[in-house]
Specification:
Elements lengths: L2 E7 L6 H9 L3 E7 L1 H8 L10 E4 L2 E4 L1 H11 L7 H27 L1 H25 L2 H4 L9 H16 L8 H11 L2 H7 L2 H4 L10
The protein binds L-gamma-glutamyl-S-nonyl-L-cysteinylglycine.
Length: 210
């Protein structure tokens, strides 16, 4: 039986999509929860980019959240082997990364002064996802691309969840995206996991902004 180990802080941050993927696919994992005061000496030096998360597949260390997701996807049938299908997953995942970077900048650099403008611009940033998911038939299949589950679904769901927390009504004008978000949220294993104390008590971000 495969068992992975995660090293990350006790925040959702860049790791929650990985936790979702592992949980939803019954992949066993343990967590070495990094304490802030231990980070610089104990963990940072062994991270190739000086950053977490890291996931260990046995002795094999994986870093960079998107590379970790894609590795797990390839290994567990959550990344298409067909090139065009893989492209559809990748182009959405790159879109998730672009918006996640903007979100992280808002949260950590400019929350109080920047939130109103961020929310004003959010519809224009969500619209492409609405359009792409509609073309991909996500409203019917419940999956963002190719009518099948991929690693990208966990990443997109987490990004949408962060934005619903930031601004509750942000998906209201996007029926496909909203339906997709709600149906993904109700996946049994995810719903069960999200109902645990461990999940509910875990901050979304590392600075108490959300
Ligand atoms: N491109 C990388 C990826 O996708 C980016 C990883 C990253 O930004 O994996 N890692 C951050 C933590 S994410 C990191 O390692 C934000 C969590 C905030 C929790 C508080 C962190 C307090 C650290 C003392 N940052 C630490 C660093 O760069 O030294």
């Amino acid at each position: 039986m495969v068992s992975y180990k995660i090293e990350y802080f006790n925040v959702r941050g860049r790791c929650e999509s990985i936790r979702y993927l592992l949980t939803d696919n019954d992949l066993k994992y343990t967590e070495d929860m990094i304490q802030f005061e231990e980070w610089s000496e104990k963990y940072k030096p062994k991270m190739p980019y000086g950053q977490a998360p890291a996931v260990y597949d046995g002795d094999f260390q994986l870093v960079q959240s998107n590379s970790i997701l894609r590795y797990l996807g390839r290994k567990h049938g959550l990344y298409p082997t067909c090139e065009k299908e893989a492209y559809k997953v990748d182009m959405l995942n790159d879109g998730v990364e672009d918006l996640r970077v903007l979100y992280i900048k808002l949260i950590y650099n400019n929350y109080d002064d920047g939130k109103a403008d961020y929310i004003k611009e959010l519809p224009a940033r969500l619209k492409p996802f609405e359009n792409i998911l509609k073309v991909n038939g996500a409203g019917e299949s419940g999956f963002a691309a190719n009518n099948k589950l991929s690693f990208l679904d966990y990443n997109l769901f987490d990004l949408l969840d962060n934005h619903v927390i930031l601004h509750a009504g942000c998906l209201d004008d996007f029926p496909t995206l909203k339906g997709y978000y709600q149906s993904f949220k109700s996946r049994a294993k995810l719903a069960e996991y999200r109902n645990t104390d461990a999940f509910k008590s875990r901050p979304v971000n590392g600075n108490s902004k959300q």
